[in-house]
Amino acid sequence: MAGLVFLTTADDAGVPRETARILGGARLGAGLPAADWPEQGIAAALPGVAPTALRERWLSPVDCQQGVDEGIAWRRTGDVLYGVIELDEADFAGDARTPLQAASETAYRRIFRLLDAQGLPELWRVWNYLAAINEESHGLERYRQFNLGRQDAFLACHRGATGNVPAACALGLRDGPLSIAFLAGKLPAVAVENPRQVSAYHYPTDYGPRSPTFSRAALAYPPGQEILFISGTASIVGHRSMHVGDVAAQTRETLTNILAVLGEANRLSQQAGFRPDQLLCRAYLRHADDWPAVAAVIEEMLGPVEVCPVVADVCRADLLIEIEAMAMAAR
Q1: Cα(48)–Cα(291) distance, rounded to whole angstroms?
Q2: Which of these, 29, 28, 21, 27, lies nearest to 5 by C-alpha position?
Q3: Locate the Chorismatase FkbO/Hyg5-like N-terminal domain: which residues (predicted)?
Q4: Nearest partner of 199 among 160, 226, 152, judged by Cα
């Protein structure tokens, strides 16, 4: 089977007429109607982008199977599955845990049940979005509540919370449900860490009662392909935030981390050929006005790569920028 194709457009141009071949994707910004396939809606401004919205899609070379299980809309092509789940925290208001912690644990438990039922147990990449990520409620920052629920689900479902965990990001939007999209498969991904950073799952308790459950990157292996997923990356060295208040310096530190992860990925890769100018990036900015400064640093350090800027809150209140990236190669 030929490999997956990743496509970003401002409209439905380039989409195959056989929409059954769209595995899933994301809708960023405002103005595009919801799709018939599993699609994560990210209602955020896209500074510096001419259209008001972009649509990302994973395209399959053959028709996909599809279904809805426990609120997860999913499609599968061969041994690869893409799914999206959204949960309203208000539905968990009576839980002994905080509503966000309960929603997070519930979502991940459902994801793991689906993957087990489909015989595709390996979680490769996860995109997490939640409202007001840096605000405090129930005596705890909301991102820390999310980490509690996520890790509880990993442990309850007999997934490790350290080592070979998926690549991921967690960003804050102004409002809306807990939204989680994911890619999974039959073969395990190869976790990649950053020699400049403490692994997120080994963070000290200064950052919350439970560490974040993600790897710095993951090498995934759909049939005939190798895909590098670089997690949301920020201006952190060791485990400490750097260059507080300076968005250009934070962007440089972030990209230095991404290049370090890229080097480590090439050491572990079956191809060992991923280059900085091949990266497809999504840059999350706390302030839309910072985009020109961020774009200039990206151009300086990576070259003319494809970047989608998104206004969103980063998981630490002292960080202004987070960048995730992806690259694909044939095997």
Answers
A1: 7
A2: 21
A3: 56-184
A4: 160
The residue-averaged pLDDT of 19-24 equals 94
Structure-token match 């530190």, residue found: 253
Indicate the pLDDT class of residue 31, thresholds 50, 70 and 90. Answer: confident
First to last CA, the chain: 12
The CATH class of the 5-330 domain is alpha beta
DSSP string, 149-181: HHHHHHHHTT--SSSS--EEEEEEESS--EEEE
Q: Is 193's pLDDT higher than 90? A: yes
Rounded CA separation 155/275 (Å)? 35
Query: Is 253 annotated in the active site?
Result: no
Note the pLDDT tens digit of each residue in 92-125. 998 889 999 999 999 999 999 999 999 999 999 9
Average pLDDT for the chain: 95
Beta partners for residue 126, in sequence order: 168, 182
Percent of the chain with pLDDT over 90: 89
For residue 16, the model assigns a pLDDT of 59
Whole-model pTM above 0.85? Answer: yes
The helix/strand count (H/E) of the chain reads as 4, 20
Any residues with CB less than 8 A from the CB of 117 and at least 6 apart, and which?
69
Is pLDDT above 60 for 281? Answer: yes
136's CB contacts (< 8 A; 6+ apart) are: 142
pLDDT at 13: 61
* Residue type at position 13: A
Determine the longest span between alpha carbons in the chain, in angstroms: 51
Domain spans of the chain?
5-330
pLDDT at 14: 59
Q: Which of 105, 253, 322, 324 is catalytic?
A: 322
Nearest-angstrom CA–CA distance, 183 and 188: 12
The answer to whether the CB of 235 falls within 8 A of the CB of 253 is: yes
Q: Residue 231: what residue type?
A: S
